[in-house]
Write a structure and sequence with these properties.
about 350 residues; alpha/beta; 15 helices; about 10% strand
Length: about 350
């Protein structure tokens, strides 16, 4: 299917674009009252993500309501541990929680490598429905969590400020850690390939907890597994977003991917120097800037755009949009990028 708006794909590949494309991490849901209405019609987040028709509906909402240049499939990074045999729950106002966690080699033996297509058929079905409904208006982004981030949840059992149990395992049981990380990596490759087969135009790998590791551990226990994923996927452009991994930007420039996402703490010109000219950079306005008034948001967006000017760029925030931000202010950001 030919895309009517292929700005995102061309920008990712480093081709000439008429203007910078823009989308937002966590755009599907959270800020939109239309999303909340759909979510309230079911028992909660997990049922919504596992109901393909509804997942497709909330995936498309930001395209219609905000005017972004891409849709990103409504799902969660933690579908991978569930598909591997470690189910999770989504606790209101607290986030994900795993009733069982991985503590030992025997726990790892109980897990399996997910095949992606059958284990996560509800995501694959949601992608197919979304693609049909979008009818080529904008590209559809698929995604998965980076192996280290998934590992952190599987060991810790929930979100954490320190992820001390997960980090301890890297020191105390490195062999077990590598075994589990490899299983997650293999599952993720299967999953992303199934997403691509179902029709996504681009994939993004989210390493949400990259920044809590020391540099040597990040290289050993995260970056090398991300590299495996990038090397295994060749059909669509790939984006790697590693929050807080400012120390690894030079190495990220060597990954077999088209785009590197910057968080809002990563200085733009320094990032460009470290990553080099041959990658598209994505980001990186501080999401909190969208709490400002329209003029302040416009000025902040223009300052960001000025710094990226003349190099390969996809406009986005430096992390996901916060749930209490006014959708009208999000539109100011999007329109400022579009008219820049």
């Amino acid at each position: 299917m030919n895309l009517k708006n292929d700005l995102l794909i061309r920008a990712a590949k480093g081709e000439t674009v008429e203007r910078t494309p823009v989308w937002l991490m966590r755009q599907a849901g959270r800020i939109l009252p239309e999303y909340r209405a759909v979510r309230e019609s079911v028992s909660g987040f997990i049922e919504l993500a596992q109901t393909p028709e509804l997942a497709a509906e909330v995936t498309i909402q930001p395209v219609d309501l905000l005017g972004v240049d891409a849709a990103i499939i409504f799902s969660d990074i933690l579908v991978i541990p569930e598909a591997m045999g470690l189910p999770y729950e989504m606790v209101e106002k607290r986030g994900p929680w795993f009733p069982k966690t991985v503590r030992s080699a025997s726990d790892v033996k109980k897990l399996r490598i997910a095949d992606g297509k059958d284990d996560l058929s509800y995501v694959i079905e949601a992608i197919k429905i979304t693609k049909k409904a979008l009818n080529g208006r904008v590209p559809l982004i698929g995604f998965a969590g980076a192996p280290w981030t998934i590992f952190a949840y599987m060991i810790e059992g929930s979100g954490s400020k320190t992820f001390s149990k997960a980090r301890a395992m890297l020191y105390t049981q490195p062999e077990l850690s590598h075994n589990l990380l490899q299983m997650i990596t293999d599952s993720t490759i299967n999953y992303l390939k199934a997403q691509i087969e179902a029709g996504v135009n681009l994939v993004q790998v989210f390493d949400s907890w990259a920044g809590i590791l020391p540099p040597d551990h990040y290289h050993e226990f995260s970056l090398k597994y991300i590299a495996q994923i990038c090397n295994a996927i060749n059909d669509v452009p790939k984006t790697v977003f590693a929050k807080g991994a400012f120390f690894a930007r030079k190495e990220m420039g060597l990954l077999n991917c088209e785009t590197i996402g910057l968080d809002w703490n990563m200085e733009i010109s320094e990032s460009r120097k470290l990553i080099g000219p041959n990658k598209t950079l994505q980001g990186n306005l501080d999401p909190a800037a969208l709490y400002g008034n329209p003029k302040e948001i416009e000025n902040a967006t223009k300052r960001m755009m000025d710094q990226f000017k003349g190099s390969r760029h996809i406009a986005n925030l430096g992390h996901g949009v916060y749930p209490d931000i006014d959708p009208e202010m999000v539109k100011v950001f999007i329109q400022t990028v579009k008219s820049y």
